[in-house]
Every structure is written in C-alpha cells, then in structure tokens.
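In this notebook, the sequence line spells out the residues, with the fold written below as integer tokens. This is how one looks.
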Amino acid sequence: MGWLRRLFRRHDGLIPVNEVFTPGSPAKRLFVERTREEKRLKSALSSAGMQVILFGESGAGKSSLAEKVLGELKRRYVVTRCTSKTTFEQLMDSGFDELASFTTVEKRTSTDVELGGSTTLGGGKLPASLGAKASYRAGEGETARRVVDPQTSPAALAKRFKSRDCSWLIEDFHKVPQEVRDGFADVLKIFSDTAHPRTAIIVLGARETSDDVVNLPSANVTNRVAPIELRPLTDTELGELLDEGGRLLNVDFSEVRADIIASSAGVASVTHGLAKACLDQLDIEVKQKTLFKVSASVWDDAATEYVETYAGGVRAQFTKALTDKGTKQSTYKNYKVVVRALASFPEHGATRGELLTKIREVHPDYPGGNLDLYLRKLGEEPRGEIVRKTAEGKFRFDRPLQLTYARTWFKLGETSGLFAEKLEQYVPAERDTEVEGLDALIEEYEKEHAKDHAEYFAWLAENGDEYPAPRTSRD
C-alpha cells in the first residue's frame, strides 16, 4: 500500500522531498536567483532567429536555468542528450525522433518495419553523409513510417521545429567529437534563417568559453548566437539554496549547514545530494507539519550513505583515468603524474603554472606540453571526466569525492575527514602511487651525500655557522 500513501501525499498539499532536492536532474522547485543570466536568456529567446549557447562548469545549473526560463515563457521544447560517440547524423536524427515524427499512414497486418536512407550534405566545415534509419513495431493492422522522408537535412529539421512552434534543448554538447562541434554552426545559421519567434536551439556545454562548445567561424553566424556564461554558485548561494529547501520542507539544516556547504565544494548537485541524504536518514519524504532539525549525528550517517552510494562510481572513474593499458611507452606515467599533482591542491584547484611547478618538484624536466595534453584527456569521457577547467582558468576535480579519493589513492596525507574514512575501503590496496620513483631518488641522494652532511654538521657544532656548504660530486 506504499504506492497509495505516496499518491495521497501528492494531493494533500505536502511537497515531496524529491521535487525539492534533485541531485540527478534539473531543479523543479528549488532555484537560486540568477537574475542577470535569466534576463539575458529570456531576451535571446524572445528575439526571432536568435540561438543560444549556455556554457559554464559542470554542475553550475545550466539545465535548471534553461528549463526554468523555457517554462516561464511557456515554450514547447524537446531535449537531446549527447555523448562522446554522438555523430552529426545521430544528432539530426534525434531532432526528428524527439518531435515524435512517426505516424500511422495505412492499415494492414504488419510486422517489424525498418526504414533507411542516406544523402550527402554540403556546406560549411562539415559536408556530411546523412542517414536516417529507424525501426518501429506496429500493432496488428497498422504500418508505421516517418512522416518525413528519411533523406533529412538541417533545413528540413528547422522547418519541422518551426511548424511545431518548438525549441530544441541540446545537453552535454561539449562531449561530442570536434568535427560535430565545428560543423554545428551551419545548423545554428539555418535555424536562425527561419526567424521564428518560438523556435530556437539552446546548446548547453560544460566549457570555459562558448567557442569551446560550438566553433562559430564567421561574424555572419556569431551575430545570430547569444553566448551566455553561467558561473558556479558561491558558498553563500549554496547556503541560500539549502535554507530555501529547508523552508519548503519545514526542516532546519542549521546544525549541519556548514558541513554540507564545505563538502559541496561549489557544486550545487552535491548540495542537493547531501541534503537529500540527510532527509533519507530521517525517512522524511514530504514537507513536515512541524519543524524538524537535522542533527550532527544524522549528518554523519548521511555522509556515510552518500559515500557508499557514489564511491563505486568514483572508483570506476579512477580506474579509467589512471590505467596504463593502451597508452604508449613513455618516460612518465603521465596520467598518474598529473592527477597526483592536482590532488595536492585544495578543492578549488590550481592553475596550469601551479600544477607544472608542483610536478617539477618530482620530475624537473617534465614537459609543459604533456601537462596540457593529459589535463585535456582527463576531462574527456574515455578517462572518466574527472578533471574540469573552471571559469577562473583553474583545473580541479569534477566532484569533491574525487579529490578525497585521489588523496587517498596517492597517500598524500591530507585525507582526514569523514569522506576519507569512508572512502579508504574503496581504494585498491595494491596500487601504483607514482611516488616510488621519488622515494628512490631521495634514498639515493642521502646515501651519496651522507659523509658530506656528517662532516658539515660536525664542523657547525664545533665552529659555528661560518663553514661553507660542502661541495659534492654533482656541483
């Protein structure tokens, strides 16, 4: 009967927790005002022919902002989510599919129907062979096929969106291959040419600049696209988010507020997740009729549950990030070198220069080009996407748990705290920490110069500090 109780709760005026704290999806009720960005987005979407690139760090709230504004403008829209394997053809095909472009066109007894076709599109930087292929199982007495011809094009897609008064929200566009990003400017231009007041493309990408999301090759395209940056929430704003969530649910987070914010490291989705974990510990599913306080002991249990929920995923990400399988033989274990250096900095990360200085403390001749290459690769899906570049130009781990996991992996010592205690069991006991080479160098140096140092300190003890530092065979 649990489903029946939940059904009644939906209609008795009590707000469900999973509509307030939403760690895995765009916010539904809980928003921190982003007045400037909302105003710019509304202005762009109200200008016929204007397309939008909404960019910023992962977890900054791009999806939440886009869906909030589209809802307030009462716009119809469909969503396409990209991956690192999304091709240009699949992206175009997804647009048609999301518009539900199948219909019943005739009656007969049928089985599975498969349709296919292809054509070559020219123009811009991406002449593409575009195919459309779909399978649809019709019921008895029906045959189903695409309303549109399988030989689709961006122009046909733009016309279809215009006819439906519909916009297209494309998420995680930064993940698609470079050739897709380079060529998508042509699609933005074609949609812009329709100049329809209720049809637009909103591209979301976790990158430092809009050009890193979509390459706009000419002013003719640039003038038709509104780039809007969304920066991560500050600690103050994360606190406001937590306070507002508590108000909506009649829950007091004040005793654990600082812990949740500190553990979030600027990522709103982590704040959502930790707050929800606290309420899960208390079996709170809806707004409370009397004020309920979250205690420190509840926070400890919630943090444990949070780590156990996500640690397996973090371990899998680091397995992908640090594996040497499939890499060329090199003087350096580059992935481990870079991750270890990054783990030695605080949660808000370090600049490229700071990272290179840290690496060269161990590897004096480490090439700067290696650092650039492997920082980029560690931010891509094949390597677990564990590193991101911030709006301030710093590099940091994508999630706070990843920083703690890395420090535990490399035995850096800065691993005290609740998360570290819980993560220890998820780190492989036998692992390459990339520090054995440094330990060996130190040991070799100490053996080679033991006599010099002994003489030096003996002289100091007898004569004061006038004795010059001993010269060695390396000087």
Remarks:
- Residues 39 and 69 are 9 Å apart (CA to CA).
